Amino acid sequence: MKNLIFVGACILISGCSSSGSQNIQLIGKWLTESCEQATDSNGVSVDAWFKSEYEFTATGFIFFVPEHYTDAQCITKAQTQTTVNPDLVVTHTDQGKIILQEGIPGYGITLSFETPNETIAVDGFYTINSGVLCFSGIFNFGTLRFGFSEVAGDSAINFDDCLAKL
Question: Which of 34, 35, 75, 143 has its CA 20 to 30 A from that of 160?
Answer without folding.
Answer: 75
